[in-house]
């Protein structure tokens, strides 16, 4: 749509009409403050979307974290961080979480010398991840890793020339890079 010179000033009818109003047809209503439940639900959804897990998987991981010793919130984030699709993405074997899931499901990743095709597989400290020895898999992963290899977190180790990675230790709360309040998630799931 072509706009006239008037629309470049503060007197533009098109711009002024929607200024300082929320989207939607009922813009005359005030936006309500988000409830405590809504805040907790938003945090839980943020974590679920980041790691790509559904509600059933998330509840299983929550029960695992609840049974572990220590802080339940930190244990939950540690369990989610240990998922194989997340580790493959963090090592740089795939450009995104979704691509990491596809890479695993197609059988390109081996854990301790065995093919694993479940993205939800939980890695342990000391596990060795490698790429399937076929030329096609090696080429596919090498494109993602690049020449120098990505910088990986302290709990992981990467050998970009051999396309191998090691899990040195279990991840801690400091290794989780998303801004999330895990205490709100625990309050939501403990109900």
Molecular structure report:
The protein is of the alpha+beta class and 191 residues long. The chain has two domains: 36-81 and 177-191, Ribosomal protein S4/S9, N-terminal domain (Ribosomal Protein S4 Delta 41, Chain A, domain 1), CATH 1.10.1050.10; 83-170, Roll (Structural Genomics Hypothetical 15.5 Kd Protein In mrcA-pckA Intergenic Region, Chain A), CATH 3.10.290.10. Helices cover 42% and strands 9% of the residues. It is built from eight helices and five strands. It has a five-stranded antiparallel sheet. A hairpin with a 4-residue loop joins strand 4 (156-159) and strand 5 (164-167). Helix 2 packs across helix 8.
Q: TL;DR?
A:
The protein is an alpha+beta fold. It is built from 8 helices and 5 strands, in the order ααααααβββαββα.
Features:
Ribosomal Protein S4 Delta 41, Chain A, domain 1, 2 domains, Structural Genomics Hypothetical 15.5 Kd Protein In mrcA-pckA Intergenic Region, Chain A, alpha+beta, 5 strands, extended, five-stranded antiparallel beta sheet, 191 residues
> Which segments are poorly predicted (pLDDT under 50) over 5 or more consecutive residues?
none
CATH classification, class level of the largest domain: Alpha Beta
Q: From the alpha-carbon coordinates, what is the Rg to the nearest angstrom? A: 23 Å
- The spatial strand order of the largest sheet comes to 2-1-3-5-4
Tally of helical segments: 8
Major β-sheet annotation? 5 strands, antiparallel
- What is the helical fraction, as a range of percent? 40-55%
Computed structural class: alpha+beta
Taken in chain order, the helices and strands follow as HHHHHHEEEHEEH
Number of strands: 5
Mean of residue pLDDT values: 86
Shape: extended
For this structure, the CATH topology of the largest domain is Structural Genomics Hypothetical 15.5 Kd Protein In mrcA-pckA Intergenic Region, Chain A
Total separate domains: 2
First-to-last CA distance: 52 Å
DSSP strand content = 5-15%
CATH architecture label of the largest domain: Roll
User: By CATH's scheme, which homologous superfamily of the largest domain applies?
Assistant: RNA-binding S4 domain
